[in-house]
């Protein structure tokens, strides 16, 4: 059943300026423009180089643990009583989330470029841990910027990064979350680009980050298609679901299905405490067009163009902007966006834990929440593919805290 | 040499630099964040800048996420926003005081507040308020030429672009060709803030830029003492001082004579230019 009209292949690539339609671009301080141009050139050269691809693929297989399994969640399917649910198990990757696909790719690229120092931002800590891991593996110095509020929520990940030899730099500005960590990483990079590469962790930022990060994660979708063909008898699910903070795991999954007219692509944002501005991170319902962190995209902001605070129980989705390609694909009718509240995500967390013995990351639990709403209304021969982007060990304390607060 | 076509400008910035050139000195261009410590205090502080010898004023419009600014201007932006500052409020200040101040005002901001207003709206309001030039830190000519500049140009408001130590020849030419009034050379590859020493290659770097640019070249980032002003004035048409004035405002915000203190400091900073 055709659910959308795919775009021509050419429309799926950004133009030379990194624009997807009117989104994206390269809105950066002049000091960073030449380093960004250098990065674009280096990336374009390397991604075509077979030795680089071979090295990356070798590490992805033997170090990171690719391919990740595709798992038929039989008990969850039975419990919901509708579509068959398949989980793409990115949670089983080394370091516990999809983030390592991109972090390793970029750190390898940095090493090839002759950089000796790596910086990164992190929200939930997963991108920070992944980057610290890749830096340790390849022998590069690493500094990870992290908001103080996120450090509190994710203190185990803070210690993990330190164990990996990275310095975790606390960011006490603004909302003390992911957006402020990105600000600080850019500030570092403005002064350090000569020997430092900034490993941006999602499909936003100035050109070439959105397309580069997407490419490093596209393995998620291509593997899933192959595996679905074997497991479900069809490479194309009826619905593919992923949570969307910046949107890297979603782009990684969706990229394999953009030319498949019969696959409905659904992105799930953080609905937080509710629909009021400041209480959520749902850019598609509450955001307006803006320019943040180098890209023109949807931003949660006030009428004066000041970026507003966001809230989500999940640190990884707690970000006021979204990857520009998502907005473009949404405009073009290619991706549908919805949101799940904190409460729904927590319920998704409990449900998957109890039915399948899998603790999902709170980010991924938002995707599970969407599945619980959607699957029961679908037929038993239909297929939902979910990107289980990370594991939930890091969130046990947050869930405990939430449930305790709930009980009061 | 960069190609330059004739375009509309209200000419105030060019005239200010011309006056300085006639007096055989560099222009002094102080920066303050509008609304810090309060919107009410800002007009007095701007008067103090002029009384102390400002030739052009860079008026900072606070943004929630100032990725190119160091701690001093970050804190000032935060205070200004907490005090109710916004692009609307800053345009109001310019509208009420530009004439009385008598020196050109360049809005110095990030692109998002401008973008949120809509570039056409913004350009019309900026021109009507008496804004002479606009510099958006994160709007390089690559994007600015298409997006904001046509609207500003149509109304005679100058677009000013940054040139950095990392700017290639092509990028210098692009910024020079796009700018009106002057170009702003950032003296170091870093966020804004005071530094003890200027970078040793500054004179050579500024000359490299000047060779390719017909417009006046102002130099900023890290300049905070009269000695540094004097040194930079040897090679630049304009000297920008930001963080050290912003810090003075921060440290004296509660003092009744804040404006007088600011004026004294600006007078000290401009003294080397008047010798």
Question: What does this protein structure show overall?
Answer:
The complex is a heterodimer of chains A (408) and B (275). Chain A is of the alpha/beta class and 408 residues long. Chain A folds into two domains: 29-61 and 99-209, Rossmann fold; 67-96 and 218-407, Rossmann fold (3-Layer(aba) Sandwich), CATH 3.40.50.1100. Chain A is 44% helix and 18% strand. Chain A is built from 15 helices and 14 strands. Chain A has helices at 30-47, 50-64, 74-80, 99-112, 126-138, 148-153, 155-163, 178-192, 209-232, 248-254, 283-286, 324-331, 342-356, 362-374, 396-407; strands spanning 19-20, 23-24, 70-72, 84-89, 117-122, 141-147, 167-171, 196-199, 239-243, 264-272, 288-292, 295-299, 335-341, 383-388. In chain A, strands 3-4-14-9-10-13 form a six-stranded mixed β-sheet, sandwiched between helices. Chain A has a four-stranded parallel β-sheet with strand order 7-6-5-8, sandwiched between helices. In chain A, β11 (288-292) and β12 (295-299) form a beta hairpin. Chain A is globular, with a radius of gyration of 19 Å. Chain B has 275 residues and is an alpha/beta fold. Chain B has one domain: TIM Barrel. Chain B is built from 13 helices and nine strands. Chain B has helices spanning 12-22, 42-52, 71-82, 87-101, 111-117, 119-129, 141-147, 149-154, 169-178, 202-212, 226-233, 243-251, 258-274; strands spanning 27-33, 57-60, 105-109, 133-136, 158-159, 162-164, 183-186, 217-220, 238-241. In chain B, strands 5-4-3-2-1-9-8-7-6 form a nine-stranded parallel β-sheet. Chain A binds chain B through residues 17, 25-35, 173-174, 179-180, 182-183, 186-187, 190-191, 193-194, 288-294, 296, 299, 301, 303-308, and chain B through 63-70, 74, 78, 81, 86-88, 110-117, 137-140, 142-143, 161-168, 171, 175, 186, 188-191.
